[in-house]
Specification:
The complex is a heterodimer of chains A (132) and B (206). With 132 residues, chain A is α+β, with helices and mostly antiparallel strands. Chain A has 4 helices and 6 strands. Classes of the chains: A alpha+beta (132), B alpha+beta (206).
């Protein structure tokens, strides 16, 4: 059985904390979603459709926190590596806007997850933590 | 599927989908940029909603919008450009990356936006995509208005609105927009490279 671990960047960590504070009714849903991500990330969410690049296919997932019409969480599951004793699950984007109200024209897609990727590239280990 | 549009997508996303679908229709590859522009021109010509403007250039119908869109698809690793062998002509051949185990819903998405556009693209590739280049150029250069047009005159004007209504669920629409957004896809491609070198054992645990 694959041992998954959620690797959380500090910016999302802060965003989740803010979300819990502002949406107390969905706080449990977020905790449950993150728990599911660590236990069975492929079963927790659905694949983002239309990704045909070989290095990304079957690795980009979406999950709705608090139900199908709620808050969107996008995460990435890299291929397993012999160097790492677990399979990382990387949340990349969390929308605090309800799905039906999310206007992509106002969302700067060029910057989504940019800071997280930059910290991976720079090996800024202190910016991440393993959940659970 | 409901006929009622449930969401809208930006015109740029629709352009990428149309060009990607066109390139996907070629059996092996689209041999050359001239062929690509001409095939796209014929696929757009009779469409009510056109996404690319074509002008008269040295080799006939040419679209700057298409060229920009092609560059985006290349950057996103959705289309690959390779030099043609000398027997195949000059320049590049273009092919879409082969989908893996997860089928991509490009055809389904396009049909949900415009079944006519999807059919016109398939038809154009079959009719014009494999013609010998001199024959293709002759066909293109004998189109109405071509001879009388001066260099860089508009031959076919794009008329699509900035946002395109789509008969897809909100979720499918979200996927379409994200999967065809260069910035988002580039971030994912960068991430997939960056994690290869990252030592996850050095990340602190709770």
């Amino acid at each position: 059985m694959t041992n998954y671990k959620v690797i959380l960047h500090e910016r999302l960590d802060k965003q989740f904390a803010e979300f819990r504070k502002e949406n107390t009714q969905h706080s449990n849903a977020l905790d449950k979603a993150l728990e599911k991500l660590g236990a069975d990330p492929r079963g927790a969410g659905g694949l983002l459709q239309g990704i045909s690049q070989p290095e990304l296919q079957g690795r980009v997932y979406k999950l709705y926190v608090g139900g199908p019409r709620r808050y969107r969480l996008i995460y990435f599951i890299p291929p397993p590596s012999e160097r790492v004793p677990f399979c990382p699950v990387i949340p990349l984007y969390f929308s605090q806007v309800l799905r039906g109200r999310l206007d992509y024209s106002k969302l700067d897609l060029d910057r989504v997850g940019e800071d997280i990727v930059a910290d991976f590239k720079a090996n800024n280990y202190s910016k991440f933590r393993v959940l659970g | 599927m409901s006929d009622t549009p449930m969401c809208e997508i930006p015109i740029d996303v629709y352009r990428r989908l149309r060009l990607l679908y066109l390139i996907e229709q070629f059996d092996v590859a689209c041999f050359g940029s001239v062929r690509l522009h001409k095939t796209a021109y014929f696929s757009e010509k009779e469409q009510q909603v056109r996404v690319f403007t074509f002008r008269k250039a040295r080799h006939g119908q040419y679209s700057e919008d298409l060229e920009n869109t092609l560059e985006q698809l290349l950057t996103m690793d959705l289309v690959v450009a390779e030099p043609m062998e000398s027997s195949q002509g000059k320049g590049n051949k273009y092919h879409a990356v082969k989908e893996g185990s997860v089928p991509c819903p490009h055809a389904q998405w396009l049909a949900a936006i415009s079944a006519d556009a999807k059919n016109a693209i398939e038809q154009a590739v079959q009719t014009y995509g494999y013609k010998k280049l001199p024959e293709l150029l002759e066909t293109a250069h004998t189109q109405d208005g071509f001879e009388d047009a001066a260099g860089f005159d508009v031959l076919l004007q794009a008329n699509a609105p900035e946002y395109i209504p789509v008969s897809l669920s909100q979720e499918a629409c979200d996927d379409l927009i994200l999967a065809l957004s260069p910035g988002f896809v580039m971030t994912l491609l960068d991430l997939s490279q960056a994690v290869k070198e990252f030592d996850f054992r050095r990340v602190r645990s709770d």
